[in-house]
Amino acid sequence: MLIEILKAFLFGLVEGITEWLPISSTGHMILLDQFVKLGVSKSFYSMFEVVIQLGAILAVVVIYWHKIWPFHKARPNERGVWRFMDRDIMIMWFKIFIACLPAGIIGVAFNDTFERLFYNPTCVAIALIVFGIAFIWIEDAHKHKQPKITSIAELSYYTVILIGFFQLIAAIFPGTSRSGATIVGALLLGVSRTVATEFTFFLAIPVMFGAALFKLVKFGLVFTPLEALILAVGLVTAFITSIIAIKFLMQYIKKHTFKVFGWYRIVLGILVILYFWLK
Question: Where are the membrane-spanning stretches (predicted)?
C-alpha cells in the first residue's frame, strides 16, 4: 500500500511540474507509466491521469483568483454607477469559451480514437521534437521583434479562435503539450510571452475541468479505499507542485526565452526514440 501511495506522489509531482512548463504533461505521464506502474485497473489509471489535473488547475485558480473572478461587492465606478461585475473579466471568459470550442467539440468527439491512434511512445517522441524545434525557431524569428499584443484585453476574437486550434493539436497528439501548443500559437500571432502564458493558464481551467468531469462520469464515482487514497495523494501533490511551477515559469520568462524548453523537448524526444528502438 505504501509503495502505491509513493507512486501516486510521483505521478502528482510529474503532473504538477509538466502541466505548466511547455514540455507536455500527457507525454511525461505516458512515459512515466512505462517505468512506474500503479497497481490499479486500466480503467482507473485512465481516469487517474486526467483527474489529477484538477489539482494542477486549482493552483491556477488560487494564484490568479483576482484576475479570473468577475464578481465582487457592489461599488460605484467613476460615473457613480454601482457595479458588482467586472466587465473586462467577463469579456475575457467569453474569449476563453470561444478558444475552447475546437478542442471541446472535436477533442471530446474523437477522444477515444485519438487515444487509440496516437497515445504511444513513438508519437510522444515525435511531438516532443517537432514542437521543441518550433519553440527554438519562433524565438529566433522573433528575437528583435516587439509583440503586437501585450495584454489579454487586446486579444481579438480571431486571435483566440486560432489559439484554440493550436490547443486542438495538443488534444490530438500527446507529447505536443497543451500549454506548449497554445503558447507557440500565441507567439506566432504576435502575443507577448507573459500574455501568451497567462492566457494559456486561464484557457486550461474549463478544458481541464471538463476533461476531468468527463473521465469521472465515464469511470463512475465508486472507489475502493486504496483508489480513493491514490487519487487524493495525486491531486494534492499536483496542486502544491503546480503552485511552485507556475510561479517559477512566470518569473523565468520575464528574463528568458522558451528556447531551453525547446532543447529539452528535442533531447527527451531523441532519448525516448532510442530507448524504445533498443528495447
Answer: 44-65, 92-111, 117-137, 157-175, 195-217, 229-250, 262-278
Are the CB atoms for 218 and 202 separated by under 8 Å? no
- List the grid coordinates of 166: 493550436
Cα 210 from chain centre: 13
Burial per residue of 229-250, b for 16 or more beta-carbon CB atoms within 10 angstroms, e otherwise: ebbbbbbbbbbebbbebbeebb
Contacts of 175 (CB under 8 A, 6+ apart): 24, 26, 27, 30, 123, 124, 125, 126, 127, 128, 131, 269
pLDDT, tens digit, 9 for 90 and up, residues 85-102:
788 899 999 999 999 999
Cell of 215: 473521465
8-state DSSP, 191: B
| Type of residue found at 142 | H
Give the burial string for 183-212 (b: 16+ CB within 10 Å, else e).
bbbbbbbbbbbebbbbbbbbbbbbbbeebb
Residue 213's Cα: distance from chain center in Å? 16
